[in-house]
Fold these 2 entries.
Entry 1:
Amino acid sequence: MKKVVTFDRPLSRVRADWSPVATVPCNYRSAGRSEGGKYVGHDTIPHLCHIELTYACNERCIFCYNPEHAKLGDIATIDRLVRAVAESQIPHVYLIGGEPSLLPVEKLNEYIELLAKHSSVTIVTNGLKRLVGISDRLACFGVPIHGANATTHEFLNQTRGSFEKTLDTVRYYVREGHDVRCIPVLTGYNYDQMYDIIRIAADLGMESIFVDRYEDGGVGSVHSAGGYDLKPTGDQFRIAVEQIIRAKQDFAGFGGRVGFGTAIPYCLDERMITEGITANCGVGTSFCAVNPKGEFRMCNQSQLVFGILPQETIEDIWNKPSLDIFRDLSWVDEPCRSCELLLDCTGGCKVDANCSDKFCIDYAVRGLSKPVAELVKKVEHRKLTEVYPGRYRTFRPNRYIKLTLRYPEKFLVTRYQTVKLDSMAVEMIQAVLDEAMTNERILVERFADRVEEHDVRLFVSRMIQVKALDLKEEVYDVAS
Ligand SMILES: C[S@@+](CC[C@H](N)C(=O)[O-])C[C@H]1O[C@@H](n2cnc3c(N)ncnc32)[C@H](O)[C@@H]1O
Ligand code: SF4
Ligand code: SF4
């Protein structure tokens, strides 16, 4: 049955400065880790931090996972949060909200300059307000297009005129040379528009498209409880997957950068595995969120607070035993508990309106007992290349890379990836950066007494693969 898409239907009451879900401090004491048990692994710091600059917003999306709509907070407080995140040198930082574009461009540029010394910075914005003059040190804009037409987009965000304004903003950012990622939210109202949304994103010259399946939280959960069909049904989800796969094949300009952005159970649709569009969110492993009060959570939708910035550092909070409330997997129910994919998939989205003060397996698999053993052998993660060309290459370091050496793990941060390097790889990338070495043959010679030529050349291939190095046109004979 076609869904009612109209402005006339009354929305559930959601007042400004009101929160359906209060945050809860986490005092979890793990029973102790057992030898041979399964635990979610992590590095000394998370790889991605979402800074929720504000809960103020100029749109009123009926699905929004945020707990409230608030007024723009005190800028000095936001400054302190951003400084604290910058000091921890987190590889990837998203400036998110609420709506970041409600802050002055100068302020956002100040944050980008501060963070970009060690982090790759993304702004996630609804595109209603255009940010003119954003620093080119910004790695990416994330902008959602929620419908293939104004009716659907504006029904979902309850903001008349926003569809054309957002498309214009995207055109402007693309013209200015920014990468712009399209991040629609998949709901029961737009599941059959995924192909057309991706076509629009391709026409606009967007860099990639990652679909966020609706997760039941915050303001969204008030509306879904009030009769709005925000959670896509199984059949709707499968239609969306079919459209996403077809669009990924048809719009080759994305270079395969089409898929899901939020965690979805791997077993929900086998094609997600066979087509390589599975997504996990990195809760407990690599992801964290900080709200405008500085409260550190493992996910934007989780209300469990593990510490407060800037009183504590991210690295101190991230390594607290209380995070075992997620990492010891004691919260996992069947069918995930006995699933061989558990450590990889970790049960889809772990937080929703029913468990935002704890963790739970995804709403779509709760209560199921589907065996997924046959899927295990089909899961393939992107592997590092094993090849290099017959000729030496010249290259230059990509302008977005940074090296973070202050933690036990040594991180190479590229525009969209975090790569862990061993000590020899650190020396080689330092030679490229500090000695301005842009020639593979010279790099081979420089390390000849310690590293096999084969390994130096593989290193160069892999650095090109992760976009740490940009390949130049010239290649010349190994013998020359
Ligand atoms: C909370 S918004 C903040 C940034 C900005 N206001 C925007 O809408 O892009 C961050 C991202 O989460 C997505 N989002 C919001 N509520 C969601 C929900 N309940 N489930 C999945 N994604 C959601 C939004 O579409 C947006 O891409
Ligand atoms: S999803 Fe973004 S634009 Fe929509 S209400 Fe939430 S914060 Fe605002
Ligand atoms: S861990 Fe759970 S959600 Fe993930 S594939 Fe296994 S059964 Fe499905």
Entry 2:
Amino acid sequence: MRGYVTLTLTFTILSLAYALKAKLTRVECLEFDKAFATIPKCYLKALSRYRSAFSLHVALHQVPVTNVSFNAAFFRKGNNGYRLFMYNNTVDFCSFYKNPNRFIFWKIVFFNIIAPSSNINHTCPFDHDIIVEKLILDSEMFKMIPFPADEYMAKVKVAAYNHFKAEIKAYLQISE
Ligand SMILES: *[C@@H]1O[C@H](CO)[C@@H](O)[C@H](O)[C@H]1NC(C)=O
Ligand SMILES: *[C@@H]1O[C@H](CO)[C@@H](O)[C@H](O)[C@H]1NC(C)=O
Ligand SMILES: *[C@@H]1O[C@H](CO)[C@@H](O)[C@H](O)[C@H]1NC(C)=O
């Protein structure tokens, strides 16, 4: 009986997640240290009512970069603006990439969502510009992270050598 309930629940969550649509609605990029990095490209292109493509170009001016960390937080929209929803944490990218199983959530986000449309799927150091080309969210990506339908914002602050260099905010809408 217990097995049956678990199975049904899992199935319900999975089919719910499958039915959800995820779309990026707005992106914002901020540069904090132009001598280190500039962001000549940061935009969304609408493809349809339910899809948009994110393109990003970060030019690195002091390569190789051997020390990178990300502080990422997910916010959910409430009556008074966006409030922290989960995962405010800082991940050292170089150690993350060596052992992604220690960071399951970031592993899913990085390998399922970011890596396929970017040129950063490799170990440190970074000796080239960072490019994300037409990243499109689809419901497949969210079957592992079934968020309730709502508006969210992901804020990623990128640091090198312990100093914040840039910030990227991506607003997304998850709907049924
Ligand atoms: C996330 O955590 C950092 C340090 O732990 C803190 O400085 C920052 O204000 C937090 N951000 C949010 C949105 O709570
Ligand atoms: C990322 O790199 C790993 C290791 O080289 C590889 O197994 C994986 O398929 C790559 N993923 C993507 C989306 O490129
Ligand atoms: C990155 O730099 C910071 C500050 O210098 C340091 O605390 C951290 O251990 C470094 N990370 C790696 C992987 O070297």
